[in-house]
Amino acid sequence: MEHVHPLDDIRLEPLLAPFATLAPRVVVTIEDVDGAVLASSGAPDVDAASDGSTHAIDVAGTLVGRVVVRGTSPDAPLLAAAGATLARAIGALLEHVANERHEAAGAAARRIESELAHGRRLQRSFVSLVAPETPGYDIASHYEAAREVGGDFFDLFRLRRRGRPLSVVIADVTGKGIAAALLMAFSRPLLHAAIDHTKGPGEALTRTNLILVEERRSSLFITALVARLDLPTGHLRFANAGHEPPIFVPGDGSPATLVLGSGPLIGAFADLVLPECAVDLRPGDMLVLYTDGVTDARSPSGERFEEGRLFAAIAASRDGSAGDVVQAIAGAVAVFAGRAEPADDITIVAIRRLPLRP
Questions:
Q1: Which pLDDT score is estimated for 176?
Q2: Which domain covers residue 35, as residue numbers?
Q3: Do both 65 and 203 map to the same domain?
Q4: Is the Cβ–Cβ distance between 171 and 187 less than 8 Å?
Q5: Is residue 115 part of a domain?
Q6: Contact indicator for 94, 6 with CB cutoff of 8 Å
Q7: Contact assessment for residue 172 and residue 347, using Cβ atoms and an 8 Å cutoff
Q8: What is the mean pLDDT of each run of 10 residues along the chain (358 residues)?
Q9: Dihedral sign, CA of 309, 297, 156, 163?
Q10: Residue 125 to residues 20, 118, 185: CA-CA distances in angstroms?
């Protein structure tokens, strides 16, 4: 990148115009700290003596250049005073320009911060922070963007069909920040519409993938898990496109396990075949969904949180509510990461089928 000298911020030639009538016997130049001439009131007379004066140009105590008066004149003291005045004036002008630029940058930063805050509020409205009414189930969630806006999203909504099953979506755009948030905003309604108009989770993801491959122009992709839960029976079908496997937590106290079965992420390949998997939630059972911001979280020393700590957090809170489990996971990640910069957006969803009343 080309270096920009502080004196390039102002037009120097007009400042030297009053001295032009004195050339060639007297020439006033403005030089940088290395002596390179940036502007001159005229060409010097080679026969003129090299007597003159030099006056520092500084901005906030930092030397940025010099005003040099060269030549012979009976008014040498007056010219020296004029050169000193010119140097001070240039320094003051540069400081004024710098202050204005700083104020403009601050105002721009405040505008950007305001826009990002608005984007954060808008994005919060995209995710189902409050689950729909689901009699017989306890549902809780946690969402935290790594930056002002993020690329995770999840959705919980009742389908308009017989039995009104619960649709569950959790997805993660590769990367984070504004680019990921924009792709999330584009993809979320596509996926929602596909779920409403297809027979099952696998077909919904396949249809969404086809649109993303044909329409988008981005190097980012999406991992997504779509599930459909039949509330009366607890039967849950899901299709997983490259996303973290859900964790099944039995209500009888036996060990939690990963529910495996996954295909490629969406947005990368036109031909996408995703198997559908199933799990039955009996009374007391729970399913935990999450994005890789949980397992990829890093401590200040760079160590990853990984699945072991995730399972430990679930084990320590599994006898509580869905909210207890979600908060236990989020709290464990926060303590582990400390003041380290977030590795990625974090989303956690827990769905627990309530035990039968005695």
A1: 62
A2: 6-106
A3: no
A4: yes
A5: no
A6: yes
A7: yes
A8: 61 80 82 87 62 84 87 70 83 82 71 54 54 89 72 83 88 73 76 88 92 74 93 96 95 95 86 90 97 91 93 96 96 91 84 86
A9: negative
A10: 66, 11, 11
107/223 Cα distance (integer angstroms)? 38
Both tokens assigned to 17: 């115009």
Number of CB atoms found within 10 A of residue 25's CB: 15
Residues 6+ apart with CB under 8 A from 218: 179, 183, 267
Max CA distance (Å), the chain: 113
Same domain for 143 and 178, yes or no, is: yes
Distance CA 50, CA 44 (A): 10
For residue 116, tell me if it sits in a domain.
Answer: no
Q: Residue 332: which H helix or E strand, with range?
A: helix 322-337
Say if residue 237 is in the same domain as residue 313: yes
pLDDT of residue 179: 67
The 8 Å CB, 24+ separation contacts for 72-75 are 72/25, 72/26, 72/48, 73/22, 73/25, 73/26
Q: Is residue 121 part of a domain?
A: no
H-type alpha helices, 216-321: 292-295, 306-317
Rounded-to-integer distance, Cα 173 and Cα 208, Å = 14
Let me know: does 71 contact 26? Beta carbons within 8 Å.
yes
Place of tokens 């930092």: 62
